[in-house]
Amino acid sequence: AQSVTQLGSHVSVSEGALVLLRCNYSSSVPPYLFWYVQYPNQGLQLLLKYTTGATLVKGINGFEAEFKKSETSFHLTKPSAHMSDAAEYFCAVCLDNQGGKLIFGQGTELSVKP
Amino acid sequence: ETGVTQTPRHLVMGMTNKKSLKCEQHLGHNAMYWYKQSAKKPLELMFVYNFKEQTENNSVPSRFSPECPNSSHLFLHLHTLQPEDSALYLCASSQDRRDNGYTFGSGTRLTVV
């Protein structure tokens, strides 16, 4: 069965520090992977996605993620956190055999301290 | 207007009321979804519609009744809700392709009193 696991429901970093949000997946087919961000009382917004090709993908707001097949991981990083990065982040994997259905992780809440 | 639009943004209703949530997408997508997001809980997929046909119902109580009159509009009709139904209700749409992902609306914050 396909699934997504986000390690840590809450991550806290200082402003200017590295942001690392972890995501591991299990899939029986080559995965398509996504990261979404959700600000308070808003919907989810696509940050970046991996489909095929280059394994390091860049997204909006300075975020990037690297697909590592050997580790079945798709961790999200940003070199220097801003206060505005405080939000909930969701990793998702696409099920190949159901026409694009996404399976979401549990979410990781990112706090940024001044 | 482009994207996925949800109305109303906020709704307070009594347990005996009947109300409806509306979702509209202008992206030409063929699949639409309702999600429930409660505090401190993962996203819960409620319903999936593909080309106006319901393809998934994840054991949602009958007090939630979806309606999809066409590929651009999705409704969630609510009646005799419980306080535990208070949550953020999110609508999403997709093109039914693996590489597209979903486009989400801003949600309706529902409070049942």
Protein topology:
The complex is a heterodimer of chains A (114) and B (113).
Chain A: E1 3-7, E2 10-14, E3 19-26, E4 32-38, E5 44-50, E6 56-58, E7 64-68, E8 73-78, E9 87-94, E10 102-104, E11 108-113
Parallel strand pairs in A: 2-11
Antiparallel strand pairs in A: 1-3, 3-8, 4-5, 4-9, 6-7, 7-8, 9-10, 9-11
Chain B: E1 4-7, E2 10-13, E3 18-25, E4 31-37, E5 44-50, E6 53-57, E7 64-70, E8 73-79, E9 87-94, E10 103-104, E11 108-112
Parallel strand pairs in B: 2-11
Antiparallel strand pairs in B: 1-3, 3-8, 4-5, 4-9, 5-6, 7-8, 9-10, 9-11
* Helix-strand sequence of chain A: EEEEEEEEEEE
Structural class of chain B: mainly beta
The end-to-end span of chain A amounts to 41 Å
Shape of chain B: globular
Extract low-pLDDT stretches of chain B: none
Q: Which class of secondary structure composition applies to the elements of chain A?
A: mainly beta
Mean pLDDT of chain B: 92
Radius of gyration of chain B: 13 Å
Overall shape of chain A: it is globular
> Whole-Å distance between the termini of chain B?
33 Å
Question: What's the total count of β strands of chain A?
Answer: 11
Q: Count the helices of chain B. How many?
A: 0
Strand content of chain A: over 45%
Mean pLDDT of chain A: 92
Helix percent band of chain B: under 10%
Number of distinct helices of chain A: 0
Compute the number of strand runs of chain B.
Answer: 11
Report the order of strands and helices of chain B.
Answer: EEEEEEEEEEE
Strand coverage percent of chain B: over 45%
Q: What is the percent of helical residues of chain A?
A: under 10%
Taking all Cα atoms into account, the compactness measure Rg of chain A is: 14 Å
